[in-house]
Recover the amino acids of this structure.
């Protein structure tokens, strides 16, 4: 719709884990091993998810376990000096199931066009995403999960990144990111195709920006909860519910900005 990317909300299993300051998140950084499907929801969803959803939603759906064991490990090496290893394991039993994704990436800084500055930043990142599934009866499913990510990126003058700083070569920028989030989802099927859905999440995001010109450090807490009832009829579907969400941003270190704390 011609809007900037910040106006498109990214959801993880229907939960808004990437909002505000924590929205510095690239879709390409999500390995496909952990994904079942990607949903593109057009139109405004600002009533539920705020101004960040004016341009629509991207909902990332995680894989669920099957009765047979699944195990996948991939190792990639690219010509741009990137090495990554990713793994996914899952299994469903009678009353319980699990999925586990874990991955690591190591990328060296690369000056592709030879101008002395990195076109691809160096990167060391680690991510883990375990989920537990409980099945008390045939109509009820309860899912709990955790996501943890550490990401350290550095870019700028290739000489500086190589440890050879002098009077001419000084520019650099480093980003250190720590993300932790917990999630809860419960579904209860009623008569026919009707069902209750309860979901909630809480997350913490911390980012440190270090450069030759300025430093900044900030942290953000997000929380979201929702309960809804879906009623399916032959010609109409009805959805009713209520949600509660908010976030708090705190500046953690001294810098030249005047931002201190923001609550929504």
């Amino acid at each position: 719709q011609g809007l900037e990317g910040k106006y498109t909300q990214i959801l993880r299993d229907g939960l808004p884990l990437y909002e505000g300051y924590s929205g510095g998140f690239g879709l390409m950084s999500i390995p496909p091993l952990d994904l079942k499907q990607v949903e593109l929801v057009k139109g405004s969803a600002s009533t539920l998810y705020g101004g960040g959803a004016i341009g629509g939603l991207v909902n990332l759906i995680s894989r669920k376990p099957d009765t047979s064991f699944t195990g996948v490990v991939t190792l990639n090496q690219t010509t741009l000096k990137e090495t990554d290893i990713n793994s996914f394991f899952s299994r469903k039993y009678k009353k319980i199931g699990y999925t586990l994704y874990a991955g690591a990436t190591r990328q060296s800084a690369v000056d592709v066009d030879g101008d002395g500055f990195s076109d691809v930043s160096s990167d060391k990142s680690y991510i883990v995403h375990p989920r537990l599934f409980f099945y008390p009866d045939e109509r009820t499913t309860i899912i709990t999960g955790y996501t943890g990510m550490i990401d350290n990126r550095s870019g700028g003058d290739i000489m500086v990144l190589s440890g050879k700083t002098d009077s001419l070569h000084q520019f650099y920028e480093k980003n250190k990111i720590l993300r932790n989030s917990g999630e809860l989802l419960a579904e209860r099927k009623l008569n026919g195709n009707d069902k209750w859905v309860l979901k909630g999440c809480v997350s913490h995001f911390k980012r440190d920006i270090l450069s030759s010109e300025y430093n900044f450090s900030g942290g953000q807490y997000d929380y979201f909860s929702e309960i809804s009832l879906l009623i399916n009829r032959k010609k109409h579907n009805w959805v009713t519910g209520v949600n509660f969400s908010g976030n708090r941003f705190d500046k953690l270190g001294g810098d030249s900005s005047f931002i201190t704390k923001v609550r929504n």
Residues 46-49 form the longest helix (4 residues).
